[in-house]
TrEMBL record:
It comes from Alectoria fallacina. It comes from the Eukaryota. Belongs to the iron/ascorbate-dependent oxidoreductase family. Residues 118-171 are annotated as: Disordered. The lineage of its organism: Eukaryota, Fungi, Dikarya, Ascomycota, Pezizomycotina. One of its GO terms (biological process) is small molecule biosynthetic process. Pfam families: 2OG-FeII_Oxy (PF03171), DIOX_N (PF14226). This is Fe2OG dioxygenase domain-containing protein. GO terms for molecular function: metal ion binding; oxidoreductase activity.
């Protein structure tokens, strides 16, 4: 972080361990200021094991750079009703090749895998997986159950699924696709989801306290079944002249300018500098894109649209983009800690309420 960085560091540890009220309140004061401006900050002392964060990044890198083309194809995101296994596509989950993801009407220069909170526990992703499951069940004496059951909090979410109706699926109602290569991918990422769900809860609890006026439990109460989203993103270097063109926003960029939709984004990124940028507006100055470079041991956090609404517009869902200017291959894993699917989120002045799931559907239909 350069000395002029406008992005503060928030120590979240008081919300992870029993702490005296004065410590909670001093964290909240810093948090509230950071959420109001610039809407981006670093989160330190988050208690995530370093071995796990390293592994999550390494697995994503290995998948993007070394997985066989057939494996990428197997877990590819499909439109609703499309794809194998009787139409397993849900228009959201799965792998996207470079250019598949569109932001602001333009194709992004990245590849990615998207996962969403499971709504169909125990339902297999493809037929082969089903066969594997049956074997597992048989070997466990028939009492087992499918993959994803009994796997901690990630597996405890049955908001409308679990009935094994099978494909074709509706928009966003499919089954998560897990790479078989590299080995251990799913296990590491499911552990990561559990840890990030806990951390997200701590962050929104702090945010509730920071907003005051009886908000203490509002976010915790509306994120108990967080409709979280996780992406693993691989950014190759931008194509030759695109690198220069991307600087002024005119050419191809790694990820186009956008705000995130939900409560709070917790971003784990590799050590690549000069990629993620936030739009910072300071009073008396013109707005500008500022690099949000990685800080050792910290996550990058930003406020999403729903949190901005809940704060009555006091907090900003700051626009950001990725222009990966270096020559290496960058990897990031954002975890979007979101409201429950059916959470009702108030509007800012003059706007009506929204149901978060409906808001998300609208975004996904519009291809981000
Ligand atoms: O890769 C990054 O640094 C950020 C990606 C991002 O903004 C997003 O996926 O919403
Ligand atoms: Fe984003």
């Amino acid at each position: 972080m350069s000395p002029q960085s406008p992005f503060p560091t928030i120590d979240i540890s008081p919300f992870l361990h029993p702490s005296p009220p004065w410590r909670l309140h001093s964290t909240c004061a810093l948090l509230s200021a950071a959420c109001a401006h610039p809407g981006f900050f670093y989160l330190a002392n988050h208690n995530l094991p370093r071995a796990l964060t390293d592994r999550v990044l390494a697995l994503a890198r290995e998948f993007f750079l070394d997985a066989p083309a057939a494996e990428k194809e197997r877990i590819k995101r499909r439109d609703v009703g499309q794809g194998g296994n009787g139409g397993r596509g849900d228009g959201a989950r799965g792998y996207q090749v470079i250019g598949d993801n569109v932001t602001g009407g333009k194709r992004d220069w990245h590849e990615a895998i998207d996962w969403y909170r499971p709504v169909r526990e125990g339902e297999p992703f493809d037929e082969e997986e089903e066969e594997e499951e049956e074997e597992e069940e048989c070997c466990a004496g028939g009492g087992g159950g499918g993959k994803g059951k009994g796997k901690g909090k990630t597996g405890s979410s049955k908001s409308g699924g679990g009935d094994r109706q099978g494909p074709p699926y509706e928009l966003l109602k499919g089954v998560n696709a897990w790479p078989r290569y590299p080995e251990g991918f799913r296990e590491a990422y499911e552990e990561y989801v559990d840890k990030m769900s806990e951390l997200g809860t701590a962050v929104v609890r702090a945010m509730g306290l920071a907003l005051g006026h009886g908000m203490d439990d509002v976010f915790v109460g509306n994120t108990r079944k967080s409709a979280w989203v996780m992406r693993a993103i691989g950014y190759p270097p931008l194509p030759g002249d695109g690198r220069a063109a991307g600087e002024d926003g005119g050419g191809v960029v790694s990820c186009g300018a956008h705000s995130d939709y939900g409560c709070v984004t917790l971003l784990l990124a590799d050590e690549t500098k000069g990629a993620l940028q936030a739009w910072v507006e300071t009073e008396g100055e013109e707005g500008r894109w500022v690099d949000v470079d990685p800080v050792e041991g910290a996550l990058v956090v930003n406020v999403g649209d729903m949190m901005s609404r809940w704060s009555g517009g006091k907090w900003k869902a700051t626009r950001h983009r990725v222009v990966h200017k270096g020559g290496g291959y960058r990897v990031s894993v954002p975890f979007f800690f979101e409201p429950d699917w059916d959470a009702r989120v108030p509007g800012k002045e003059g706007e009506g309420d929204v149901i978060y799931g409906e808001y998300l559907e609208g975004k996904v239909k519009g291809n981000f």
